[in-house]
Amino acid sequence: MFPLQQFQGIQTPFYYYDTQLLADTLSVINSLLDDNMHMHYAVKANANPRILSQIAEAGLGADCVSGGEIRAALEAGFPAEKIVYAGVGKSDWEIRLGLEQGIFCFNVESIPELEVINDLAAELNRTASVCLRINPNVGAHTHANIQTGLSENKFGIDMQDMESVIRRCSELANINFIGLHFHIGSQILEMDDFKALSLRINELQERLETAGILSVRNINVGGGLGIDYSDPEGHPIPDFKAYIDTYRQHLHLRPGQQLHFECGRSIVGQMGSLIARVLYIKENAIKRFCILDAGMTDLIRPALYDAYHKVENLSAMEREETEPLLYDVVGPVCESSDVFVKYYALPFTQRGDLVALRSAGAYGEIMASQYNCRTLPKAYFSLNKK
């Protein structure tokens, strides 16, 4: 999978992306979507311009959470009419940008936000199409820091306020209510979580119909489908079929309703790896440390979420096999939390070896920082094309 000869002479650490895997993933997604289904790529997962352009060329829309992401999506070729804009704290300039560009809709999270969008739209003589983000109070089996669908989270409008906020939309001259938006979290692997969301949406739709509200043209279920961090080779493409079929079977759409998804990690997660070089092997009385030139500034997920990424010694694959040794794989950043994995079995590893941290295509490069005045990692791409 990794062209080691091509890596020679490249300054580490860097991100390496398998563009053929992305093409295959996009092909699977497009083969599964019905005519009333729309996939918007969650730009926050990875905004590398080349990756964005490939996704746009495949016909997907974009899910943005900032004005910067809207700009990046437009520059990459996403049509404005396929861009949705979410976020609990949209600033005035970001809202104006969305209005001026004519994006598909704003996913609105509060009445104050709704009123600001209306005022700004009036100033520009525009009408803003909005979906209301409803907090469904559905828990997801995932890390607490990436749950978004509980009442305790900062996201969305309380279910009890749904009807009153929809009615408020009708009172605002520059607001066009077009649907409901939901998102319960990220890195979800249990389809029952998406089933639970479907059943909650069914309840809410029935409630709206009882209240005489029949104008819900779009249902946006967000994203959240996870990837297999333990076995990226065995499962390079997530089970999009099970994911989409769960909604087909359990979500009761009304005639003419459009269903929208906002996947990010599941589209780009497995295509990317962080390539690093071993600086030192350090041993003390109780541990053996493998110190890389990549750290939490290049891939923050392990430090931020205690997330797991499979570590592979690429150089050792070309040597005679040895019994594995246990290492704490760490970075050079001046923080005790700069640790990728502890007590990890690797073949005999030495200074100069190339190491891959797998499944880093999502929330890797995009979250990199220059803490300790470190240089941001560059990106390189595979050349293989079928």
Quick structural overview:
The protein is α/β, with parallel strands linked by helices.
Protein topology:
Layout: H1 4-7, E1 14-17, H2 19-32, E2 37-42, H3 49-57, E3 61-64, H4 67-76, E4 83-85, H5 92-101, E5 105-108, H6 111-123, E6 128-135, E7 157-158, H7 162-171, E8 175-181, H8 191-210, E9 218-220, H9 240-250, E10 258-261, H10 265-268, E11 272-283, E12 288-292, H11 301-305, E13 311-313, E14 325-330, E15 339-346, E16 354-357, E17 378-381
Parallel strand pairs: 1-17, 2-3, 2-10, 3-4, 4-5, 5-6, 6-7, 6-8, 8-9, 9-10, 12-14
Antiparallel strand pairs: 1-11, 11-12, 11-16, 13-16, 14-15
Span between termini: 14 Å
Within CATH, the superfamily of the largest domain carries the name Alanine racemase
Report helical residue fraction: 25-40%
Please state the second-level CATH architecture of the largest domain: Alpha-Beta Barrel
- The number of distinct structural domains comes to 2
Supply the CATH class of the largest domain: Alpha Beta
General form? elongated
Largest sheet: 8 strands, mixed
Total DSSP E strands: 17
Topology pattern, helix = H, strand = E: HEHEHEHEHEHEEHEHEHEHEEHEEEEE
- The assembly state of the depicted protein chains is single chain
- As a percent range, the share of strand residues is 15-25%
From the helix content, strand content and strand pairing, which structural class follows?
alpha/beta
CATH topology of the largest domain: TIM Barrel
Low-confidence stretches: 141-151
